[in-house]
Design brief:
0% strand, single chain, elongated, mainly alpha
Length: 128
C-alpha cells in the first residue's frame, strides 16, 4: 500500500483548483443564462441599468438562441466532465475521490478546470 506522501509524489492524487476569477465569471454567466432561459419574466430589468436593458434586448429578440446557448453550454460541461475522468485515468490520477473532484469542478466550471487537467504533465515514471 502506498503512503500519502508517495501518492502525492507519483501524481495519483493530483488536483488543482481553477482560478477564482474564472469560477466567479462562469458562475455569474451560467446564472444569468439560466435566469434568462428559465424565468425571464422575473428579471427586474429596470433596476439593473444598462445591464438590464441588454438582458431585456436578449429576451425580446433572441430568447430562443439564448435558450440554445444555455442548454448547449450545460451539455458541453457534462461532456467535458466525463472526458475529464477518462483523462484523469490516462494521466495516472487513480484516486477515485480526486477523480470525483475533477469531475465536479469541470462540470461546474468547464474549460477553466478542464484546461488545467489537459495541461497537467505527470512526472515520468522512474524505472530501476
Amino acid at each position: 500500500m502506498a503512503t500519502d506522501a508517495e501518492r502525492l509524489r507519483d501524481g495519483s492524487c493530483h488536483f488543482q483548483r481553477s482560478r477564482l476569477i474564472w469560477m466567479i465569471a462562469i458562475t455569474f454567466g451560467m446564472i444569468c443564462l439560466g435566469w434568462i432561459t428559465l424565468w425571464p419574466s422575473t428579471i427586474p430589468y429596470s433596476h439593473l441599468g444598462i445591464f438590464g436593458s441588454f438582458l431585456n434586448y436578449l429576451v425580446e429578440n433572441y430568447h430562443q438562441w439564448v435558450c440554445y446557448g444555455f442548454w448547449i453550454s450545460w451539455l458541453i460541461h457534462i461532456v467535458e466532465a466525463f472526458y475529464g475522468v477518462k483523462l484523469c485515468q490516462s494521466k495516472g490520477i487513480t484516486d477515485p475521490a480526486v477523480q470525483f473532484h475533477w469531475f465536479i469542478q469541470t462540470l461546474l466550471f468547464g474549460y477553466a478546470s478542464f484546461g488545467l487537467l489537459v495541461s497537467y504533465k505527470p512526472a515520468a515514471k522512474k524505472h530501476y
